[in-house]
Each structure stands twice: as C-alpha cells, then as structure tokens.
Amino acid sequence: MRSVALAAGTPGDSMRYLADAEAARLDRWLGDPENESRIFSYARCADLDEGEEFPLEICRELDVFGLPRHYVPAEYGGALRYYDGLLQLLRVIARRDLTVAVAHGKTFLGAVCVWVGGDAEQARHLGAEITNGAVVSWALTERDHGSDLLAGEVSAQRTREGYRLTGEKWLINNATRCHLLSVLARTAQQGGPRGFSILLVDRRSLDRTSHHPLPAVRLHGIRGADISGIAFLGTPVTGSALVGTEGSGLETVLKSLQLTRTLCASLSLGAADQALSMAVRYASDCSDFGRPQIKLPQTRRLLCQSYADLLLAEAVSLVAGRAIHGLTGELSVSSAVVK
Fold first, then answer.
1. Do residues 247 and 257 share a domain?
2. Per-residue confidence (pLDDT) for residue 290, from 0 to 100
3. Could you read off the pLDDT of 13-28 as tens digits, one per residue?
4. Whether residue 313 has pLDDT greater than 70
5. Would you state the pLDDT for residue 18?
6. Domain harbouring 180, CATH code
7. Same domain for 53 and 70?
8. 246: domain range?
9. Where would you tag: which of 119, 131, 170, 296 has the fewest CB atoms within 10 A of its CB?
C-alpha cells in the first residue's frame, strides 16, 4: 500500500513527542469545556444535541486552529506525518463531543481514497482544497445494500467528457454540507471486484438540477450530525474526477478502510475518556451506606476494570496507528483488531 509513503522520514521519539504535544496544544487552545462562554463547551454541545443542530461554529473553530492540515499528508502540503498523532488529535475532540469529532473528522475519511489511490497532482490539489477549508465526504453505501459494496447500483457511465453518475448514496456523513465527495460507482455493467471506480466529485461545479440531497436521518445519538444522502440524476462529471485507474475502486476502498478503521478508534477512546471521568466524578460525589461510592469495593473494582479496558484499547490503537508506517503489510489484521 502506498500509505507508507504518506509520511516522509522515519518515525522517531522526537516526532512522537511533537505529535502528543500538538494534541495537548489543541486541548489548551479550545479552553476549559466547563466554561460555558467557550464555543466548544459541554453546555454548548448539549444544547446543540438537544436541538439536533449541526455544530457549525465549533467546526469553524477547529478550522481556525488548523486541524484540516492534519488530514493532509505532508507531501501534499499538509501536516500529517504520523497517523498516531492524528488519532490523538481526534481523541481530544471526541473527549469533548463525539458529534463534532464525527462531523469534522469525516473530511479525512472522504479524502483518504485520493491519498491511497490518486496521482500526485490530484492529491496536491485536494490537499490545497482541504487546508483552505473544503469539506470532503465519502459516498460508499446505498440504502438497499448497506456495506455490501459489490452490490452497489450507483453507476458511472462513460461519456465523451467523462462520466454520467446515476443513483443514490445513502447514510452518508456530511452529504448535504460537503464540497467534494469520493463516490464509489459501478463503471462496468457486470460489476465484480474490477467493476467499480472512485470518482472525486466537486459538488460546487455540478448543475443544481442534476443532483439533490436526501433528507437527513434523525438519530438516537450524535443527533446534530448530518447523516443523509445524495441522489445523482445523470450527473455529468469530468474524466479528471477518476481516482486511480478505472476498475480499481474496490481495491482502493479496502486499502483506505485499513486506515480509517484504525483512526476511528480515536472516537471510542475519546468517548471512553469522558465516560470514565464522569463515572469517577459521580462515584466521588455520591454516597451509599454512609460512605462515598468510590470507597465501596464493588464500585472501585468496576472503575478499575473500566480503566484497565481503556488502557488496553489505547495500547492496541497506538500500536496499530504506528503500524501504518512500520508494519503496513499487516494492516488488514491490525485494523480489524482495532475496529
């Protein structure tokens, strides 16, 4: 996989320290989440979730910090050198609010097919778009087929200028808000492992009558996230939208998933950090049988077991994140274990 080349140089202790320091800088820059006057406060996030509102202001705050640069490999103009560093950055965000982590971090997922399978010119162009604030989505799944990608019906028929996209992609994060989409489409009528391709579609250049968003889905959790879809109505796209070679789409997706599965651990780690902190605070403040709950053996055992689980998950995730560089050939195993 070409992903080994996405970070120049050999991973070393000094760069690991810098990666951790960048995560700590982000946490300090965002301020105390208990302070309700901060944009990225717990109170603000709770209000947004209650109102099922997208955290637009908070995402813009992360843009001001420069987080999008960390979604772009250094060789394409970004700041991404070590994947475990990006994992720690997203963990900081997920620790404060999972909706924001899902909403903002989606741009990396949307772009990863280009980092893995695109040519250098295409990757540099996308890198510049992202560092300038473009939101990228990943249009993989469909309503009737779920994760069965080989059954996908969205088609990309060849034309003189490029392709014509037809069909619906559904349950797509940021489908109605993104500027660009990496679309997995059927380019061979018979389908099969070599029957699909990735097209990087710039929504800003499309005829408004040739596509439309699908309604957002109401969610039980992360209620402010934009989980919706997009319908293509014979949408024309240029031939330059093709990522890699025609027919390489499924291969590119499977390689990309090895990266995204590993980095998605940041969402679980951040949520677990917050949950454990809340549990310890509650057990310290509340009393049973005349004693603080945290003094009771059963409570202490449960909290200690939870902390051990978190440490184990963290260790596995960090090893897998570093394995992206050092054990790339093993990613099909390590990413599955982390997932």
1. no
2. 84
3. 555 556 688 999 999 9
4. yes
5. 65
6. 2.40.110.10
7. yes
8. 137-251
9. 119
